[in-house]
Each structure stands twice: as C-alpha cells, then as structure tokens.
Amino acid sequence: MINTSKIAKHNLKYNKSKSILIMVTILLSTTLLASVAMVCVNWADSNKERTIEYSGSYHGAIAKMKEDDINIIKNHADIESSGVVNTVGIKEFDNEAKIALAFTDEVAAEFSSVKLVEGNLPIKENEIVLDDGALKLLGYDKKLGQKIKLSYEDFANEETSKEFILTGITKANDMSNARKMFSGIVSEEYMKNTRDMSKENFNIFFKVEGEEKLSGEEIKSKVEKIASDVGVVDKRTIKVNEDYINALKPDSEIMMWALVIGAVVVLSSMLVIYNIFYISIVTKVQEFGKLRAIGATKKQIKSIILKEGLFLSLISIPLGVILGYIISDVILANVLGKAEASKLPISIGVMIVSFATVFISLIKPMKLASRVSIIDAIKYNGVENSKNKTRKGYNSVNIKKLAYANLNRNKKRTYITLISLILSGVLFVTVSTVLTSMNAEKMAKDHFPYDIRIDLDNYTLGDEESPDTEINMLQMKNPIGEDFVNKLKELDGVEKIQENKDIKAEIKGYDTEYKYHTLMNINEIDLEDLQYYLIDGNIDMNKLKSGNEVLIGDSYLHTDNNINAGDKITLILYDGDQKIEKEVTVQGITSAPGTFLMHDDAFENLTSTNTNTSLGIYTSKAKYGDVKNYIESLVKSNDYLDSSNIDEQIESSKFAIQFTSMIGYCLVVIIGVIGFVNLINSMITSIITRRKELGMLQAIGLTNKQLVKMLDIEALFYTGTMMIGSLTLGSVLGYIAVIMCKKTGMSYVSYTFPIIQIAMMVVCILLAQLALTYFISKNFNKQSLVDRVRYSE
Asked: 74 near 95, Cβ under 8 Å?
C-alpha cells in the first residue's frame, strides 16, 4: 500500500533546495499579507486614538445651554450619555501661554480624553486638577496635596484669586504644548459658589444611542435632530464631532479603496505562490510517472502533491503571521504609535487566505500530474511542447542565445514572473504620479484663497438671551466694517481685500429646522464650485446681480421643506435692529456655507449696516510677514476678531500629503517585494533544474564569467521588460488617475511626472538584480563540477 504522507515528506527532504525556496516564498508572502493587514488595522486604531486625544470621543456638542436645559438633553431618548463643561475663567501669561479653568463632570472628562496620571477629579470647593504643562508654567512640582495659588480673569473681566489643593494631575497633549493652551478642572461646588448659575452658559457633550448600528451620516443627522428637538436655533452653537465619527465609521469610499488595495496585495501573493508550486511540481512529473507505474492512483498522486503543499504551509504560514505581527507591532509601531487592536481575527483571516491561496495554486499542478500518461510522465523533461512541428536551430551558440533559449523553455513561468513584476512597477509609477502631482500650496489655496483672513468671532445667531452678541447687533458697530477695511488698505503690502458678508435671515411662512439662517454674498469666483454641487435649477450670475433671485446653499430646505428652483419665498432680513422683508425667486439649489446666496452687487443696496463677517487679504510676497504680524496684534486686542493665514493652511496640507505618501509608498513597496520574490524564485529554480545541463556546459568550456553573464542577460530581460512595461503602462494609468482625481474634486492635483521616484526605482532594481545574480552564481559554484554533471533530482 502506498503511504502518500510518507512519500510527500520524503520528497520534501530529498529536494531540500526547492522545499526551502517554497517555504521562504510562502513565509514572505504570508508575512507581507499579515503585516499589511495589521499595519492597516494599527493605523485605523491609532488614528482613532489620536482623534479621541485631540477631538474627543463624543458625537455632538451644544454650546450656550442654560442649567435648566441640561436635564432636558440628558433625558432625550436618542442620547446614550452626556457630560457638562462650564468654563470658569482663564489665566494669561506674558509669553502668550494660557490656562483655561473649567468645571468638567466625569462623563465630559471621559469624552475629552482627560486621563489622570495621578489622583482624582476635584469634589470640594478648594480642590483642583491641573495638567503637567500648567504646573510647569505656574512653577510647581508634580506633587499631589500641595497648595496652588492661582489668580485668573472670569468672563466679566474680573480678577479672582484662590488657593487650591492639587488633587489630580493630567498630561498635556502635543497640541496643547504647541499652542501653549493648558487646562485646569475645578469642582462643581466651586463653580456654584463663585458663579451666578442663572446666567451661566454650559457646553453639553453627548453620544447618541445605537452607535454600532448607525452609519456616520446617520449619527450626524441624529446630532442635528437632537439640537432641533431641544429648541436650538443657532447652528453655530451645534458641533458635530466629524473627526471622531469619521474615524469610528470610515467613509464607504475609503473602505472600497482599502479593499481594492488588499485585493491587489492578495492577487500579487497568489501569483507568486502559484508560480512557485507550478514550477516546483511540473519538474517532478517524472517522479509521479514512476509512482503511477508501480500502482499509484490519480487520487494518490493528487494527495501527495497536496500534502507536500500543506506540510510546507503548516510551517511557513504560522511563521509568516508571527513575523508580520513583529513587523507591525515592533517596527511600524514607532511610526504609527502603539495600537491596542486585537490581532487574532487578522491572524486567522491571513492564515485562511494563505492556505486557500496554496490550495488554489496546487489545483492545476495536481490535475497535470494525475492526468498525464505513465509513458509521457517518464519522458517529461520540463519543457513546454511547441505547436510548431519543426524546431528552429542555430549554426552557432553564444551566451545570449543560451539565455533566451532558457526563457523560451518554460514560457508560462516567464510570463507569470513578468506579469508579477510589471504589476508591481505599474502600481509604483501610478501611485508615485498621483502623490507627486499633489501640491500642498494649491491644496491649501483651494480652501483658503487668501494670504490672510480676519473673521468676526464670538457672535451668536438666534440667542435671545445674548442680544448684544447677535450678529446683526454687532454689525451696527462692525469691528471689520468700512473704516477698518480702509485702514487695512493703507497698509504697505496689502494689494486686495475681499469682503465676505452675511445677513441674519428668516424664511416667512416656513417651519424650518432652524429659525435663523444667513444670506451670504457670492461672485463669479465661486461659480465653478456652485455648479459642481448644483442639485436643482441653474445658475445665472446676471440675474443674481439684480437682487431678486437667490441660490439656496442648504439642501435640507429642498428635501425637508420642499422648496424647489422657481419657487418664490419671502426673506426677513435683519439690518441692525431693523427688519426688512424681501420677496425673492429661488434660482437653484446647491451646497455652500450660507443658507441663501446672492451676488455681491445686490448686497450694496440690501442693508444700511455693514454686514462683513470676514475679510480675505491678499498681500505682496515681500510684505506678507509684516502685514501678518500687524493683523495678529490687532486680533489679540479684540475678543470679537480671529485671524488665520496661508502658512498654517500649507503646513496642514503638507502633513496630510506626507502621511498619505507614507501609506501609499509602504503598500507599493510591499507589492514590489512580492514581485521581486517571484524573480528570485524563477532564477533560482531555473538554476536548480538546469544544474546538470549547466555543469555539462562548464565541462566543455563555459567559464564562470560567461555563466554570470548568461544569468545577467536573463535577469536583464525580466527587469528590462518590467521597466518598459511599467513606464509605458504606468505613465498612462498615472495620467488617467490624476484626471480622475481632478474629476472627483481633488482640484489641487496637477499632473507631474515622478522622475525622481522612477530613477530611484530603476537604480534599486538594477542593484537588486546584480546582487541576485552574484549570490546565485556564487552558491552554484560551491558544488564541484563533477557533482553538478552527476546531479539528478
């Protein structure tokens, strides 16, 4: 009786070189699959942790709520949990550092990622928690129980001094240190005893019910619905924590791309493993023919091949998963940060995929070995049968002809290796083209077209209890009104100022989700974006200039209130302390920051007050720094002003592009390594299967130098074809990818040929090829010529 397990084990031991090669390849492929999967999970998990650290773990927040409103929100059916924060005051220092003091309950502390390094949250009136940055700023050690003397200003600008006992210490994050904005937490008792609670405005943070079952968009909608249910009329007081929601519930498009990348990695690995087993098994067809001759059935032949693959896989795949874990957790954790995500499901998934890949790779070789007749199996020499009846010969043989003869000997192996290499190269060129074409400055300019922007800040919209801070009331003495604009125009270096306006508005006769809206000015510069997001109707700038037609920038009015293009509506506009009714026709529905949009020219005659809410300032390059410093000094002296500049936006864009590039190049390099493994396999297998043949050639005069040259020609054929295919197909696909990116809204992408990246790719490939040839020839020559001539598997 034929023992298939014993034969399979004997074959593996006898053909050690091939077995080791197959094991190494499966090991590498599994390692790459495991490390890619684990790095992606690590990235998602660390991204979520970073998001929680900087943005918190709440879904939504509502500002300026009264004490009586807290219980209403806490008892809302759609809220799972909620926390309260109330700012008490702020301590400012000469170096622009600040310590913000606030009451924060336990839930809000958890939402805000307040992690106590030592101690507990304050309970008594004289207790306080400070972060390590605040303690250092105040000149105190990190020691619990010590007395802390602190003076600060409340929001009535009244100076208050108090001696606290330190009950807890938190750690300031990187953003707090960079902004020099540190924090302290006081007790509820202290807040109630030092503040008039009837006048206090609370910030309420909450999580919606059923997070696991809801999509990201559904969570955002619930946050807005909750705000509407409790009577919030000012959209500005509602914050949807999009950073946390997006990290928690990645966009379906992002998930789709992740699956595409994963599929490419799996496909590349399958190609390599299939090629390894195919080459390995077709060279042993003679052995299986001999087994058939002594009585082995087709089923037993298949069983032997399958068991060989499984025995090798049982060793290589678990080792590959372990190596993948080490790479992702030990090496890449330094870049992405330590993540706590469970690796067990990934490990099991990768093992299943790898075993499935090996099994699929064995199907065709198993059929090939089991179907061949005994006579054909014994006569089999590993060379593909040609369809031509006559074979082309040569009058003379040289090194080049020998190299190409070997490549033609097993065309299938050659083609599979080339496909794997070209796939890697094409992906590298395509991804490099897209990443090189991303322009950080253009990306920033798309969202921030100015050099400097000044914004009207800390105003309210529909807060009846704070009438003095309502936008229409502030506009009566607008701090960025006409006089301020004229003053800026006189500055040396200011070339142009764009005035962005907003008017507080209501819609007469409609019960909308929010009572108050804004009418915003637009011009021809905005036309492209408005057209891109157009939902209904059309856009005619000339008619918008008349002031009798508007665009709607909030699609909810279209979907929830059934307002369509062509409808006539009456707007109630707030001109300072006066109201104006104006009937307008809805020209179209689009997506924009303001609820209603009207042309610049029409704004001049709408109100008597100056309705500026932000100023976009364009400066000369030489004077940009001076103008920026002057504006920053102006903003510091006015609580109702804020500023931002293009430098900040470019730095943010650069960081985003660098992070994207790191992830993109890591994946492409991994796929490239898989392709190169296929080249190593093809060349080593070629040498192993031709050891006797090459030994005979050396016996009749082939020198070691000629052998190396022949191997170089074979390797150059692979790498040369790969580079030609990669550059031609990759360049075309790269250009198409850039065009597609532009069409999907990435207007900051401008086609740039990745010459540096391609040069690096060519150099790396050539160096790798030379190293590979050197090591193969060195290893081949370790055996004596007699042993090589006598070699037979």
From this structure: no
Tokens standing for residue 534: 């157009």
Please report the DSSP string for 521-588 in residue order.
EE-GGGHHHHHHT--EE---HHHHHTTSEEEE--HHHHHTS---TT-EEEEEEEETTEEEEEEEEEEE
Residues 105 and 137 in one domain: yes
At 6, the amino acid letter reads K
Give the ranges where 448-522 is alpha helix by DSSP (H): 471-474, 482-489
User: Looking at the domain assignment, is residue 387 inside a domain?
Assistant: no
613 with 629, same domain?
A: yes
In the chain, % helix, strand, coil (3-state, to 5) comes to 55, 20, 25
pLDDT score for 793: 45
Total structural domains within the chain:
4
- Look at the block and give the residue holding tokens 């364009």: 618
Cβ atoms 383, 409 nearer than 8 A? yes
CA distance 50 to 40: 15
Helix, strand, or coil (residue 438): strand
Last-in-domain residue among 187, 216, 240: 240
Give residue-wise pLDDT tens across range 391-430: 565 666 677 887 777 777 767 777 877 887 788 788 888 8
Q: Which domain holds residue 30?
A: 1-56+248-382
Label the pairing between strands 98-104 and 181-186.
parallel
In this structure, the answer to whether residues 97 and 173 fall within a common structural domain is yes
- Radius of gyration in angstroms for the set of CA atoms belonging to the chain, rounded to a whole number: 36
User: How many other β-carbons are positioned within 10 Å of the β-carbon of residue 429?
Assistant: 27
Q: Which helix (H) or strand (E) holds 25?
A: helix 16-55
Mean pLDDT confidence for 512-531: 86
Q: Alpha-carbon distance 526 to 531, whole Å?
A: 9
Q: Please tell me whether residues 512 and 484 are part of one structural domain.
A: yes
Identify whether the C-beta of residue 133 lies closer than 8 Å to the C-beta of residue 177.
Answer: yes
Do residue 296 and residue 378 come from a single domain? yes
* Residue 382 DSSP code: S
pLDDT (tens digit per residue) in 608-634: 999 999 999 999 999 999 999 999 888
State the CB neighbour count (10 A cutoff) for residue 513. Answer: 16
Q: Within this chain, do residues 727 and 706 fall inside the same structural domain, yes or no?
A: yes
Query: Strand, helix or coil at 427?
Result: helix
Does the global pTM surpass 0.85?
Answer: no
Residue with token string 């052995």:
287
> Which residues contact residue 646 at a Cβ distance below 8 angstroms, ignoring those fewer than 6 apart?
444, 445, 448, 450, 451, 452
